[in-house]
Write a structure and sequence with these properties.
Blueprint lengths: L2 H7 L14 H12 L10 E5 L3 H10 L5 H4 L2 E8 L1 H6 L8 H24 L3 E5 L6 H8 L5 E10 L13 H4 L10 H17 L9 H9 L7 H7 L6
Antiparallel strand pairs: 1-2, 2-4, 3-4
Helix pairs in contact: 2-6, 3-7
Family: Belongs to the flavin oxidoreductase frp family.
Pfam family, one: Nitroreductase
Keywords: Flavoprotein, FMN, NADP, Oxidoreductase
Length: 240
């Protein structure tokens, strides 16, 4: 259809990279693409920390669950909610509302996706690292985040050294609703489960016998980082 859509539809998470660095002009273009992203009311409440220090990279890889590619990727970016600069401009700012935390998380996702798409359009690859929130407090301290600023996720970027299979997604009939919320089409889920079972069993690495429904319901049935609310509250966020 066009090169932008082709890039979007060809997305794969890359977790293995060559030793080749990303050119400065490319990195600048990637970051500028992120900065150009939509921002709620132009609040611009996201900060990005580029981590180049080797020891910090090693620590972040451990905090994220021993994800080695955090250490070895050409670039590692950490996306943070950031109301500190707004508070410094005017102490009457009230960053502790839950709505502002939602805005920060949404804007960070939009900015990061712009960065990743820009990188992929240049022939690079990457992967999101939500595992940083496993040790949010430790990551926060390592990166010296001030009050009203909190870590959300990281992103590895580099030259791909793998070509993973394209992971199937839920069909549009399940995700897209018209005019009002529609009942779940269980037959569509069953069809998708069969497709994902085949994908999991035959992909080039980490094969397993499972379906999408089994994977996600198992994950959602357990605790999901229960320390996060306390962490956000400790940073002056999401209190009311």
């Amino acid at each position: 259809m066009n090169s932008v859509i082709d890039t979007i539809l060809a997305h794969r998470s890359i977790r293995k990279f060559t030793d080749q660095p990303i050119e400065t002009t490319q990195l600048n273009a990637i970051l500028q693409s992120g900065i150009a992203a939509s921002s709620s009311s132009l609040l611009q409440v996201v900060s990005v920390i580029r981590v180049t220090d080797t020891e910090k990279r090693q620590a972040l890889a451990q905090y994220a669950g021993n994800q080695k590619y955090v250490e070895t990727a050409a670039e590692f970016l950490v996306f943070c909610i950031d109301y500190q600069r707004h508070y410094q401009m005017n102490p009457q700012v009230k960053p502790d509302y839950a709505e502002l935390t939602l805005i920060g998380a949404a804007d960070a996702g939009i900015m990061a996706q712009n960065c990743l798409l820009a990188a992929e359009s240049l022939g690079l690859g990457g992967v999101y690292i939500g595992g940083l929130r496993n040790c949010a407090k430790e990551v926060d301290e390592l990166l010296g985040l001030p009050e009203y600023s909190a870590v959300l996720f990281g992103m590895c970027l580099g030259h791909p050294d793998q070509t993973p299979e394209l992971k199937p997604r839920l069909p549009a009939e399940v995700i897209v609703h018209e005019n009002q919320y529609q009942p779940l089409q269980t037959e569509r889920i069953a069809e998708y489960d069969a497709k994902m079972h085949d994908y999991y069993a035959n992909r080039s690495s980490n094969q397993k016998q499972s379906s999408w429904s089994e994977e996600v319901t198992t994950k959602l049935a357990g605790e999901s980082r229960p320390h996060i609310l306390g962490y956000l509250n400790s940073k002056g966020l999401n209190k009311r």
